[in-house]
Description:
Blueprint: H1 7-15, H2 43-54, H3 66-69, E1 84-85, E2 89-90, H4 116-125, H5 134-142, H6 145-155, H7 162-173, H8 182-187, H9 196-208, E3 224-226, H10 243-246, E4 254-256, H11 278-290, H12 296-307
Antiparallel strand pairs: 1-2, 3-4
Bound molecules: heme C (2 copies).
One heme C binds at residues 64, 66, 68-70, 83, 85, 91, 93, 95-96, 98, 101, 104, 107-109, 116, 119-120, 123-124, 129-130, 169.
Amino acid sequence: MKNTFRPLVLAAALAAGISAPGWAMQPDNEPISPIPAAKVTNPAMVELGKKLWFDPRLSKSGFISCNSCHNLSMGGSDNLKTSIGHNWAEGPINSPTVLNSSMNVAQFWDGRAKDLKEQAGGPIANPMEMAFTHELAVDMLNSIPGYQAEFKRVFKKDKISISEVTDAIAAFEETLVTPNSRFDKWLKGDQKALTKNELEGYKLFRDSGCVACHNGVAVGGNSFQRMGLVEPYKTDNPAEGRAAVTGSDADRFNFKVPTLRNVELTYPYFHDGAADTLEEAVNTMGRIQLGKVFTPAENAKIVAFLKTLTGDQPKLEMPILPPSSDKTPRPEPFAKK
Ligand code: HEC
Ligand code: HEC
């Protein structure tokens, strides 16, 4: 067994006053695995998808892009309790990160979209988000010669349809993965990647049972689980979770377990955005999912571990978008509907 506790070595190290990161614990069949770097198979499609990702002309106002609510400078989220949509609409739910979202079992908190392609059509036509329609979005793109040429190069088709739009956005999103976190380095055998404190935090996280739901490559994202397993979760947010999709009462308040990758960057937490800090989120999770009350010192260790899950953020060059033509319909930033 690789995980052998080495009391003599450790005692000697402690006696010598040396802090020995990782000495007492090595990775051994851990329930979390490292994130592989993204494999780009079609760079031209990814580049087009990146343009669409940043293009606010896919919204009625001409002002809101995917990046407005999933800001890639801020961990792929908006860091707001709930998002702001068209006409300053108060969004119903917290915006999850798009980083590593290709690893999710399904998309959205309730999993109502099966994959990234299906998801990408949602916000464009959502009256509370980009407030456009697929037809108007496609007309807009077809009116821009730069896009026409680029879609033709990538898809070998003369006419753009929503299917190519969502294919390209999904291809770009698949590249938004965050490898090389310090925790992944530790998983791969770099004993110095974590401090003693962080490792103790991981041990608490693992051995308290957090890994029952937060596991796998994304430390979550791979199942739907009850929010408030041991103790009910109190919230004013009306979202009912997975039941909205399955219609089954048993799924009430089941939500997709969020990924904890980059969780340091994606505050505030939970579907209602009610927890402002990781300390608060960890306390709540311990209590309502596991019936456990962590001491402040234990909580701080778990938080220290969670911060080691921040990986390399996607390095992007801002795309320059093709200009509108004289025929491109003009945006309606102040339309009330
Ligand atoms: C007005 C804010 C807003 C805009 C604009 C927006 N989103 Fe989102 N996005 C959200 C919110 C809020 C959710 C969660 C909704 C839910 O689960 O019901 C979400 C969910 C997602 C998810 C699912 C992530 C997960 O873990 O389940 C993906 C992927 C995503 N958006 C991609 C996009 C793309 C692509 C665009 C542009 C076409 C976009 N979003 C535009 C707010 C926004
Ligand atoms: C029974 C399954 C389960 C267990 C056990 C569990 N979680 Fe969660 N966790 C969830 C679900 C589901 C959510 C999302 C709930 C929501 O927002 O409604 C969540 C959300 C979180 C979030 C917020 C992430 C975000 O982006 O909003 C953090 C942080 C977190 N969990 C940490 C932990 C820690 C630490 C433990 C152990 C003390 C733990 N979880 C145990 C299922 C679980």
